[in-house]
Amino acid sequence: MALTPLIAGNWKMFGSRAMASRFAEGLTPAALPTGPDLLICPPAALVGLVASLFAGRGVSVGGQDCHAKAEGAHTGDTSAALLADLGARYVIVGHSERRADHGETNATVRAKAMAALAAGLTPILCVGETLAERDAGQAITIVRSQLQDSLPDGATAGAVVIAYEPVWAIGTGRTPTVADIAEVHAALRAVVGDGVRILYGGSVKPGNAAEILAVANVNGALIGGASLAASDFLAIAAAAPTA
Ligand code: 13P
Questions:
Q1: What does the pLDDT average to over 21-36?
Q2: Using CA atoms, how far apart are residues 182 and 73, in angstroms rounded to an integer?
Q3: Over the stretch 185-237, which tens digit does the pLDDT of each residue have?
Q4: How far is residue 109 from each of residues 103, 113, 125, measured CA to CA in Å?
Q5: Contact 217, 200 (CB under 8 A)
Q6: From CA 131, how far away is CA 238, in angstroms rounded?
Q7: Is the pLDDT of residue 149 over 80?
Q8: Where are the alpha helices (DSSP H) in 93-154?
Q9: Catalytic: which of 97, 104, 129, 165?
């Protein structure tokens, strides 16, 4: 059974109310591809606004991170339940920028994924090797252990999404070869089995999307820079194979 591709945008720490409005205006029925599921993950402070701007426009909304606890005295953090209350359906956990900037370990990521599931959100669990790890021939070993150690207990097929994002391909304009992407995705597939979508992320653009999205076991994309404008995001979505 073919999985419906998921084309997800991660706005990171970019965006504003005005930018979200411009993006929503670009989501006309004529511009929306019918095949893939579409998702935008804006900064937490914009999730509620974006959820109302996108309502009925065919694009879901997600968070970029959540706390591992359901609630509590954690100044500045956002709970999965609040994201859900604001209209989010997904939340990214374990992005390499969170792992690097905030020292998140696989155990932290796993706890966050479990909190997301408990709040009814679909976690998008990110893994990816650094350039040094790839050069040392350790890419497969690293991403496999990241996935095994951060996958929540009892996650049923369809309840989680995996994203393979090689750290060295994020924001650099460099991408792995399709053979390298296929090799990593096959290794991740062996861990999660059929029924779980595995996205590729790292310098996905309108110009390379069709080639990447056609790779075996690539079930969509996680897009940073090229998700900031609706035109680029929709051009990538249009390149997704129909399930
Ligand atoms: P870029 O598409 O800007 O390389 O970012 C990828 C990414 O980190 C998405 O989460």
A1: 96
A2: 43
A3: 999 999 999 999 999 999 999 999 999 999 999 999 999 999 999 999 999 99
A4: 10, 6, 8
A5: no
A6: 30
A7: yes
A8: 96-101, 106-118, 131-135, 139-150
A9: 165
Q: Write down the residue that tokens 């953090």 correspond to.
A: 77
Q: Which residue carries 């209350």 as its tokens?
A: 85
Helix (H) or strand (E) holding 168: none
Q: How confident is the model at residue 76 (pLDDT cuts 50, 70, 90)?
A: very high
Contact 26, 231 (CB under 8 A): yes
CA 134 to chain CA centroid, Å, is 21
Residue of 197, 203, 237 lying closest to 33 (CA atoms): 237
Reported pTM: 0.97
Taking alpha carbons only, the member of 74, 165, 63 closest to residue 121 is 63
Q: Mutation test of ligand 1: which of 92, 223, 228, 236 has the most ligand atoms closer than 8 Å to its C-beta?
A: 223
